[in-house]
Design brief:
5-stranded mixed beta sheet; alpha+beta; about 350 residues; about 35% helix; 6-stranded mixed beta sheet; 3 domains
């Protein structure tokens, strides 16, 4: 949408609601009144920040600690609805304090999602944010605790550690360097460059990229890899299959044309940049975050740890390994939280309680 809407202003909220149910190609399956209430609640709970202006499909970027964060309209609508429901629980002001500390903003959004998920479960009858426990002289403040028909459960929420997020940004940044270089050197349209990151990105990465592109054009398609600095590269014809297999962490640049295609189609891909080592970084990050969560939970209570932004294939073995450590005896399970689905990982001995409170686990 090519005009701005200041969500802090009632008239602008009304004007934006006039475009329902589709706004910038997104369908909002809520009534006009629910939409307006959600926007008003989000603005009020967040204390009307200056970035709460919607234009060109998103809200204005704002500082969130290590970088700027950009939220979409649906993010704010959902946040407004979730905060409205959670505002009735004790300690809500402690939850909200996280939004006003930039480095904690995204973590607080995740905490809100998990708390809202728990608050609507039939077996949970009450919820309190930041309850205080003093155990052997140490104060523990879990994110929140829930009261259930089967007793009290303390909950801690964690997202991937910063260096794992940096690794993903680094992958995309490296791909951008190659894309820019390919444009500048007029990369042949019939060739594809496939790059694997095989080492730490030290030294002048841009210089490595330039050397690779010049040498790749000179050599043309070849079977042996071209190794320069932390990169191992192949030049292949676009009509041929990929030399580098699809990786959990990779980025492809598709050729724009008038022919319908699909993802991972080599014929329409001019660049693939892959890093096959990022799983190990995320495993380490996940393990560190689990350890941090454990320190915030009282040993005297039944507890849960919810993880966000972690693929199940990584979280599952990391979490199951903890069940063999006596330090985790009071941890009922780990919730791997995604917007569309929440998977609970638990011991067989705790499965009955997990099923009764959270639904079916694994």
């Amino acid at each position: 949408m090519d005009r701005s809407f200041d969500i802090r202003v009632k008239a602008d909220r009304e004007a934006l609601a006039d475009h329902l149910p589709f706004i910038d190609h997104t369908e909002f399956k809520v009534s006009r009144s629910e939409f307006l209430c959600a926007l008003e609640d989000a603005a009020d709970f967040l204390k009307k920040p200056v970035w709460l202006v919607y234009e060109y499909g998103s809200f204005r970027p704002f500082n969130a600690g290590q970088g700027n964060l950009v939220l979409g309209l649906i993010d704010i609508v959902l946040l407004g609805m979730q905060l409205s429901r959670l505002s009735g629980f004790r300690g809500f002001e402690m939850l909200m304090s996280g939004f006003f500390n930039p480095p904690q903003f995204e973590d607080t959004v995740f905490e809100v999602k998990v708390a809202h998920f728990c608050s609507i479960l039939p077996a949970i009858t009450d919820l309190q944010f930041s309850p205080e426990y003093v155990i052997r002289g140490h104060t523990k403040r879990p994110e929140f605790e829930v009261v259930t028909e089967r007793g009290r459960i303390c909950v801690e929420c964690k997202r991937p550690h910063l260096f794992a997020q940096k690794a993903m940004r680094s992958l995309h940044g490296t791909a951008s360097l190659f894309k820019t270089g390919m444009t500048e050197c007029q990369w042949p349209s019939d060739l594809r460059l496939e790059v694997e990151i095989i080492g730490a990105l030290r030294g002048n990465v841009s210089e490595f990229v330039g050397i690779i592109l010049r040498e790749a054009i000179k050599r043309g398609p070849h079977f042996d890899p071209l190794v320069v600095g932390p990169f191992s590269s192949y030049v292949v014809r676009r009509t041929g299959p990929f030399r580098l297999p699809s990786a959990p962490w990779h980025t492809d640049t598709m050729v724009v044309g008038n022919v319908a295609t699909r993802l991972f189609n080599p014929e329409f891909t001019s660049l693939r940049v892959a890093n096959y080592s990022l799983d190990s970084k995320f495993e380490k990050s996940t393990g560190l975050r689990v350890s941090e969560a454990l320190k915030q939970l009282p040993e005297s209570e039944k507890c849960m740890i919810f993880m966000g932004g972690v693929p199940l294939r990584i979280a599952d073995p990391v979490c199951r390994k903890r069940f063999g450590d006596p330090a985790y005896d009071h941890i009922l399970g780990f919730g791997i939280f995604r917007d569309e689905e929440t998977t609970i990982i638990s011991r067989e001995t705790d499965q009955s309680l997990i099923n009764a409170v959270f639904g079916r686990g694994v």
